[in-house]
Amino acid sequence: MLKIQGLHKKYGNYHALDGLDMELKDGALFGFVGPNGAGKTTTIKIMTGLLKPDQGTVELDGKDMLGNTMDLRRRIGYVPDHFGLYDNLKVSEYMEFFAACYHLEGFEARKRARSLLEQVGLGDRMDAFVDGLSRGMQQRLCLARALIHDPELLIMDEPTAGLDPRTHLEFRQMVWELHEQGKTILLSSHNLAELSELCTDIGIIDAGKMVLSGSMDEIMERIYTSKQIIISVHDEMEKALAFLKESPMVRTISICEKDIMVGFTGDEHRESELLKQMIEAGIPVRGFMREPGSLESIFMQITDHNEEKVVLSYEDESGL
Ligand SMILES: Nc1ncnc2c1ncn2[C@@H]1O[C@H](COP(=O)(O)OP(=O)(O)OP(=O)(O)O)[C@@H](O)[C@H]1O
How far is the CA of 114 from the centre of ligand 1 (A)? Predict the structure, then answer.
């Protein structure tokens, strides 16, 4: 649906986006994750036509959008990180104001506003003033506003920042329902754990570049296979090493104290095959396990610039 290629954006001498590529598939619930200052908001502002990049393309269904921001805005609903609400309006007036921006007026506008407000749980707040709403309610109002023109793609920048746990949970439920109803959704956050439970796809941005992206299943598989297998054998170390060198799925072998660390490209099934073959070859295996690791630990490694980037080196080698 949305394809971004080679985005560059500088603020003065600071390179906020440095050749960012990104693809958002039709129907995806995409988690756009990165540490503070990684370039999420800058990317989102370019996607929504609010900021011009120095270089790069943004296409929606194969059509260039940078020169066609009116079309872009018709097809996208945007919830910014700062709500920018008009405090002195009533909730219903606020919704009707935005409906009018999309040429929706009168009965149709009121009907659509009421239906959206009910959907986000603000049906009983039509006559309340916007500035009297709690932060969670203002967030939901912003969401209703972003849906007023029934956009195909909904983009939300850090939507859960500052929400208490209960409101947070309700918000996630709402996002999930919108996704079930067929909306393509992009949510940004610096909290990977939060998005990994909700999203179908994840893109991790760091220092203005997309460093890892794909469906949750693909990413979990990559993470799993990027972890080494730790094998310990009773004596017979040489025999074990000779065997492993011949195994086609073994990518790297190193020795750490008495353990053999094996970079292995196979899945869980292949992993148990390897163990079986080692035992059948008469190697006295005492221990055999994958290194523990999680999406969160990989995120920390990717975004900690002092550490080796495990997933990236794996990606480079495997060509995935
Ligand atoms: N208008 C601006 N002028 C100068 N620098 C800017 C401007 N907007 C953003 N930046 C800088 O560009 C970098 C990327 O900012 P951006 O807001 O896109 O990151 P982000 O990933 O959304 O961060 P956060 O999670 O903190 O909101 C940051 O270092 C930020 O300080």
Answer: 36
